Amino acid sequence: MSSSVRGDELFPALPFFTANDPELVRATAVRDPLGLLPVWSGVGRELVPHLASGVYKLSGIKAVLLIHWLLQEPLKEVASRNFRACFRLLEGLLEYYLWAHANAGQCFGTRALSRPDGFRVFAHDAGTAVNGLYQYYSGTCRRAELVDAEWTVLPDVATAFRRCWSTSAVNALRHGLERVLDDIDRQAFEPKQVLDGTQVLARAIGEAFDSTALMTVMRDRVLGNAAQVAFARHCADIRQQASGQPKVDQMVDNLALRLRDDREPASALRPSLTRVSECEHFLVLVQDAFDLMRALERNSLGQAAKWMEPSRAVHRDRAQRFAGLYAANAGERDEQIAALANALTSGPTESFLQEVINHHQRLMKERGSEPLLSIDEGKIVSLLGAERSLITVQDHMKRGLPWNNGYYLATAGAIHSQLFGTRT
Fold it and tell me: In sequence order, what are the residues at sequence separation of 6 or more whose Cβ sits closer than 8 angstroms to the Cβ of residue 245?
């Protein structure tokens, strides 16, 4: 090769000459690298026990229940051929119905549902329009005990659905499913054609979604006990009064004022609301500390600690309050995060930062992934660089107590409005 010709001129598209390193490749897909979400969720579920972040439409819960009932009772024989394929096809059908017929808005997959050449579902599709309902809504059905451990729907739910479905409606649906299953690799399920082919099917689906008997069961179970239902009502009131989406910290302050009255049914949750605040304040700090180190790559832990020192008193107070939440009956992950709180209260900030890295590395080892942060020759090494800029992290630390979580409060309010208001 001539010395005047560079390698990148010969091979401009090759970033390196070795095979992909699987250790590095899998490190790019790290979600919740500090294991904070289980800790947050454990506290948050004292207030909102059944709803997940993606559960913002009651119709999604109804759809999952309807699919399970159809595949367990009238379409049991068809489902025995390929349960997951049938579930996926019915997800696509109900998503399309909600989008095109019910004026209720889709749950997931707007672009797929509105394709100009028509929405089609294959048995092996992986898009959210044919997997989103199960992915986001099935957990709520389980936690609310609308289905049992074997995914069999509650008897009262089954009774409500039986009233809505005729033999003709079931047969119309069976024919469409069997056509796909008979040639599963090539045949597509076309919801528009299936629904347009017979009015009786669309009528049955509509009656199932509008069932008063089903709503009675859901009002009794979806939001939890009486105090949790009352709490969700306050969340709905606050959202309505704000004429939009209030900030989470403002919403929590408003809820705290409302729950001071012992005559208020939700007042029993006052201690839980306090725990939610104390938990959130420290978890935000841990995440900020982690992101601070990622933004200060090639600096020492001592240099990173200096960025936190001006707020050390505030940070210690947050840590002490959090540690007090887990004096007893703590789960394994709770104890791990509580240990970080103790490290911050009992030692220098630099030691706390080292413990954050150690905790992260142990967690990644459990998951079989490479850690994002390490120390090499006394310097911070961030495998994937910064998640947030140094200025952004600084600003987040200085703005008092900004919330990362709390989305479930708005979710509880939205679902309460749909359960007890005019929207279903």
Answer: 239, 410
Q: What is the 3-state secondary structure (H, E, C) of 344-402?
A: HHHCCHHHHHHHHHHHHHHHHHHHCCCCCEEEECCEEEECCCCCCCHHHHHHHHHCCCC
DSSP structure class, residue 152 = P
Using the CB atoms, write b or e for 30-52: b if 16+ within 10 Å: beebbbbbebbebbbbbbbbbbb
Residues 6+ apart with CB under 8 A from 73: 158, 162
Cα 109 to Cα 128: distance, rounded to the nearest angstrom: 5
46 by DSSP, 3-state: which?
coil
Task: Give the residue from 381, 235, 245 showing the smallest Cα distance to 301.
Answer: 381
Cα–Cα dist 380/373, whole Å: 7
295 contacts 390 by C-beta, under 8 angstroms: yes
Residue-wise pLDDT for 284-328, tens only, equals: 999 999 999 999 999 999 999 999 998 899 999 999 999 888 755
Do residues 208 and 66 touch, judged by C-beta distance below 8 A? yes
| Longest Cα separation, the chain | 87
pTM exceeding 0.90 = no
